[in-house]
Amino acid sequence: MWNLNNYQILFFPGIDFTDPSYHLPHFYELFALWADEEDRSFFQAAASSSREYLALTCHPITGFSAEYAEFDGTPMSRKLPWTDQRHDWFYSDAYRTVANIGLDYEWFGVDCGQRAAADRIQEFLLEACREGEYHTYEIDGRVADLSVMQQSGSADSMRNSGNSITPASIRAAATIATMLPIVCLYPFLQRYFVTGLTIGGVKE
């Protein structure tokens, strides 16, 4: 499951690329503590490698990562023999990446540059969250052709479903690791706390 030269997890055994959302340094840290003694140094190296990789593969402006990516962090745009679908955009698997970054930072507080992706996603999706827009994006933030955030179902069904993945839910995952000012976070939080937020002595 891992490339033994760069300590990066593989999309599946024997393949020559990775999936950014598969990089789970917070779990590798635990494996380094509790795995068989002879495996612990490998998992410690894998944790460090994954944090560095996540900093590399997340876009420096949007914070987005691709579904699948090369070992150098660039989106994996090669044609695959088992599908005609593309996997080099911010879609599907890529929605998990920022949640993993957030959980890792919450548990271990180690930042190799990857935590900035959470801030960037928050900032980039803020206006989309306010407007209730649903898009699929290139990792540089350009809107792609599709207008839904999931691989199945219509745009309307996604908007009406409690299980839909929206800009708001992606930003919720990013909140774990972000340090954005409350003035930026407030419109997002207000939407999900129906009882309102207390600001000083006033509840909105």
List keywords for this structure.
two-stranded antiparallel sheet
Give the neighbour order of strands across the main sheet: 1-2
The percent range for helix content is 40-55%
CATH topology: Glycosyltransferase
**Succession of helices and strands:** HHHHHHHEE
Most strands sheet: 2 strands, antiparallel
Total helical segments? 7
By secondary-structure content and strand pairing, the structural class works out as mainly alpha
Reading off the top of the CATH hierarchy, the class is best stated as: Mainly Alpha
Give the N-to-C terminal Cα separation: 50 Å
> Poorly predicted ranges (pLDDT <50, ≥5 residues)?
149-163, 179-183, 192-204
Approximate strand percentage: under 5%
Give the overall shape, derived from the CA principal axes: globular
Overall pLDDT confidence: 80
User: What is the second-level CATH architecture?
Assistant: Alpha/alpha barrel
Q: How many β-strands, per DSSP? A: 2
Count of individual domains: 1
Q: Radius of gyration, Cα only, in angstroms?
A: 18 Å
